[in-house]
Amino acid sequence: MASAEWLRRNRSGANRSEPDGIKKSGDECRDCGGRGDALCLARQHILENPETPTPPASWLIRIPEVFADWESEIFDGLGAVSLRKLGKDYHLIRLENPDLPIRQSEAAKFVSWNLPVHHSWPCDPSKNPGFIEKAAQALLRKFGANPPQTLIAGALDPGATNRYYRTLASNLRGRALQLFPPAVSAIRDAEAQDSRTPTLFCLVGQEGLFCGEQSPQASNGFHPGGTKFIRQNTPGTISRAGAKIAEALHYLQLHRPPPTAGCHWLELGASPGGMTAELLTRGYQVTAVDRAPLDPRLQKSPGLKTVLSDAADFQPAPNARYGALLSDMNGDALDSIRHVARLAKHLMPGSLVMFTMKLPGVATYSAVNELQTRVTAAAEEARLRLFSLTHLTYNRQEFTLFFEREP
Ligand SMILES: C[S@@+](CC[C@H](N)C(=O)[O-])C[C@H]1O[C@@H](n2cnc3c(N)ncnc32)[C@H](O)[C@@H]1O
Question: How far is CA 208 from CA 61, 117, 125, 135, 324, in A?
Fold first, then answer.
């Protein structure tokens, strides 16, 4: 049953006319089948007495550790005041202009994930008996009357060796989903979310519980705190970069579908071939260009053409057309984008370009911003429109930029 319908029925005049809102009839509720048990009554009471939604007083942002030295510049760039550090790399901030979306700020690229905090409970959950029940009831009271597409919970420090908060997050989600209308639990995989529809994200750690409603796209990830965990060192891995492109293709779904199988990718800076191998596994064709050879394990891979050459000397056939371009060349990012721009005329309209913007010798916050402005401008001249850029888990001193070739 759709959530709006669930609410309409469970808040219907028939039910409300009963003393204390007790349901007497039929098939309205999947939990009690009309018997009016304790859970059902508590949920009904809460939904009939929702709290007034409040604008967020604070935001939760995640700054990857590699940018920790630039935290104060990042706060300035966002127009933010830091209230408190949470977990390993989260910060609670207050925005000077809350109407300006975080992702539109120049500093947004240094923020891998963000969330408006509509509800928080600063406490040590491990010392709070009944934490899960109280937290779940509070979520229902606050968000149940206008339910999100789904509710996802995670730990503020997901890498912690102690699993306590990961388990707590999972149990909180389970309990809250029992209380919310059935449609909220219909989404089983985070990737099945509509990237533009609000989700209730909850993060929990020893500092307490922090929750907010925002779309995965505005938060910059389908999962609380970021992207999906993708293992780097699976047997037979050619390079760690395979996990990086897998993560990038996952992230891409926040904005558009990935290229369809069979699409022909032009790959610049392919050696030793971790990304090439990942693209081939997904059923893509690849023309892989590098001045260094690919790993011999890739020899004779179906769908692969290798070109041992500097990108500057690579000249596709005049009528060659690719459906996507990937550049992971190291060295000066401006040189790299110029190679991409020169080859952009061989891309079909709407083609995806994924570009790793490396930062060798780029030592300051403002130099990174300047470089990104120049890279974006060089791409635009070749009708490559930037539609997203981010710092992925597997990016170190670099960003991944996503462009689309305009007709
Ligand atoms: C970080 S590695 C790429 C790793 C690769 N994407 C993988 O998945 O294993 C950078 C590569 O870019 C190549 N490269 C840098 N500048 C180049 C250029 N101008 N032409 C061709 N290859 C270049 C280097 O030879 C190097 O192999």
Answer: 15, 12, 6, 10, 44
